[in-house]
Design goal:
single chain; alpha/beta; Rossmann fold; 2 domains; five-stranded parallel beta sheet; two-stranded antiparallel ribbon; 9 strands; elongated; binds adenosine-5'-triphosphate; binds magnesium ion; ATPase_dyneun-rel_AAA; MoxR-like ATPase
Length: about 375
């Protein structure tokens, strides 16, 4: 049989390269700076460089990636160097997954050891399974074993990411218990020393859970004890959120080969709308009815991206307030009739009175809110 050759796609063809590939140059720069400086065993970077990679460092020209406080991030990094896992919880779209990816990329130079939690998550998908042809031919050997993320993380001393852990049935969460406390995985099918896989230094787990999913599967108290919890808050500084939405939207548009950027006045309208609806309060203190839709920063970015795309292809590359309103319906509000009504109310109560041509156009475009 001729050898299978797979042509790997170039970076620009990959929809979403993992952080360690996307930021390979920055990670290399930090590794060079670190040299042989002390760090937790098997970490690719020192804890200080992990922080610089994620929050940015102007002197080193490292771009900031996650918006959050330094103290929160320091606690996350320290937790990963201890014998407990790190649990990131918060509202949807607050960058829990993104932060866990950045941490794994910085610490292990590999963010791909990821288990996706769902009702159907099995032990095989977490620990290991078998290549049955090899299993029958040679028995339970290393070659016949197909490692899943936990196995690989323990063997290679890397960070394993466990997404949406509370969506997993409790039995599956329990699988993690012994691994997190004893740091050993039993492989009963194997013989002799193969029966136990001991975790290498550097192995740890970052789990994420959305507060909206609570109650689907409550986490057991035993598992809770094996994690340090950190709550990731939404960005509450309007200026920081504006900057983030602008850069991320423009980056997505550039990746899609769309030669335009979201006009800053529109970004301001977009982020202000999200901010006010999320906090149920306008900048001048008026109370608003809370929406059931999560008005997260991640959603704001997707509204901006869709509006840019819409304007480029259907309006001679001009993005207008109308595109924002249309994307707001499709990308953010989705199917909630109640929320559309509340949004109409927001337009009549708040947007109508705002000064400036763009706000006026935005209000006019509100007629699409049906
Ligand atoms: N504090 C933040 N710093 C950087 N990006 C942020 C921040 N908050 C939100 N974002 C945006 O959110 C996107 C990532 O969202 P992500 O999927 O990681 O959220 P999540 O909290 O895991 O959501 P979910 O609960 O739905 O899984 C980022 O790409 C970025 O555009
Ligand atoms: Mg997530």
């Amino acid at each position: 049989m001729p050898p299978k050759t797979k042509k790997s796609p170039t970076l620009s063809q990959i929809q979403r390269p993992p952080a360690e590939i996307l930021h390979a140059a920055e990670l290399q720069q930090l590794r060079d700076r670190d040299g042989i400086a002390p760090r937790p065993q098997n970490w690719q970077l020192t804890p200080r460089s992990v922080l610089d990679f994620i929050l940015g460092n102007a002197d080193l020209k490292i771009a900031p990636k996650f918006v959050g406080t330094r103290s929160l991030l320091e606690r996350c990094i320290v937790a990963l160097a201890t014998n407990r896992g790190l649990m990131l919880i918060g509202e949807p779209g607050t960058a829990k997954s993104y932060l866990s990816e950045l941490l794994a990329a910085a610490i292990s130079n590999d963010s791909t050891l990821t288990i996706q939690g769902s009702a159907g998550t099995t032990e095989d998908a977490m620990k290991y399974s078998w290549n049955y042809a090899l299993l029958l031919a040679e028995g339970a050997t290393d070659r016949a074993l197909v490692p899943a993320p936990l196995h690989r993380g323990m063997q290679q001393g890397k960070i394993v990411r466990f997404e949406e852990i509370t969506r997993c049935p409790l039995e599956m969460q329990d699988t993690l218990l012994s691994i997190l406390s004893d740091r050993v995985m039993a492989i009963p099918e194997m013989e002799d020393e193969g029966r136990n896989l001991y975790a290498q230094m550097g192995f740890n787990v970052i789990a994420t859970a959305s507060t909206r999913d609570r109650g689907v599967n409550e986490m057991s108290a035993a598992l809770k004890r094996r994690f340090n919890f950190e709550t990731i808050p939404p960005i509450n500084n309007l200026r920081q959120e504006l900057e983030l939405v602008q850069t991320q939207t423009d980056k997505l548009l550039a990746q899609a080969n769309i030669p335009l950027t979201l006009p800053p006045e529109l970004t301001e309208i977009l982020v202000t709308t999200f901010h006010e609806l999320r906090t149920s309060k306008t900048s001048d203190g008026k109370a608003l009815e809370p929406l059931s839709t999560v008005m997260s920063t991640a959603e704001a970015v997707s509204v901006g991206y869709a509006a840019g795309m819409h304007g480029f292809y259907y309006n001679d590359a001009q993005v207008t307030a109308e595109h924002l309103v249309q994307s707001l319906l499709g990308s953010a509000i989705k199917d909630s009739v109640e929320d559309v009504k509340k949004l109409q109310h927001y337009f009549n109560l708040v947007v109508k009175g705002r000064k400036g041509e763009r706000w006026h156009q935005y209000y006019e475009a509100g007629k699409h809110l049906v």
